[in-house]
């Protein structure tokens, strides 16, 4: 009987050690997630406070982007971008004076699957791009 208790105690000790040790956390702490990868062609729309919504396409390759709009705005052209855990910054090669250009720093949210909401607000005017990875 003494042998059974020793085996049982050894098993419980082993189970406690195994479940208590972990090389990685199963869930990352908020604010420590890696930014998503923007890669591929995305279709969606652009809206600005007080203006009509327009259809857009943006293609991301590496840290480069290019795109188009079905209207005169926004001007997307091409350039580079960087993304971190809560913002994406665009540097556009277009130099359109007075036009709405995809340029500068925006907030983003991953809505579902591969749909992104990219926006910024300045003086009560919000520019918003909602794009979904084309399948």
UniProtKB/TrEMBL annotation:
PROSITE patterns: PROKAR_LIPOPROTEIN (PS51257)
Protein's recorded name: Lipocalin-like domain-containing protein
Organism this protein belongs to: Terrimonas rubra
